[in-house]
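Please decode residue identities from the backbone states below.
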């Protein structure tokens, strides 16, 4: 029995020295880097497009949307969508006005918080973190 214990004590470090390089060799073979080719559609940068006729208006809930509704009627704009989850509307500019002058007009309406372009986002555009876009 004592001989077995001595034999194990003698062979264990040598077996460890034999197994260790073999394990390192196996692990290093798993770290090969592969290059992945992305399709052209993902590699292109997204083009910021917006609607040439529509824009978004957000208003203060304390003031309400009555001044905005009055301005829409006066300016002859068209309500495309009145959001019921957020205090805002999607509007269409009149035919005889430019988008920029229409947006400037609505920025001056009482209770209006923001006037924004109605951006078009394509489903095949790559998703990028906000920091990369700005």
């Amino acid at each position: 029995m004592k001989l077995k214990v001595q034999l194990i004590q003698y062979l264990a470090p040598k077996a460890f020295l034999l197994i260790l390089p073999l394990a390192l060799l196996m692990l290093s073979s798993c770290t090969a880097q592969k290059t992945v080719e992305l399709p052209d559609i993902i590699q292109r940068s997204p083009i910021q497009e917006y609607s040439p006729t529509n824009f978004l208006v957000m208003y203060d809930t304390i003031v309400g949307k009555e001044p905005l509704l009055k301005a829409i009627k006066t300016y002859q704009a068209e309500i495309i969508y009145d959001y019921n989850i957020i205090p805002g509307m999607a509007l269409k500019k009149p035919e005889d006005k430019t988008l920029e002058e229409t947006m400037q007009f609505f920025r001056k309406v009482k209770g209006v918080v923001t006037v924004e372009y109605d951006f078009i986002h394509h489903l095949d555009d790559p998703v990028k973190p906000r920091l990369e876009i700005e």
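Observation: The CA atoms of residues 54 and 92 lie 4 Å apart.
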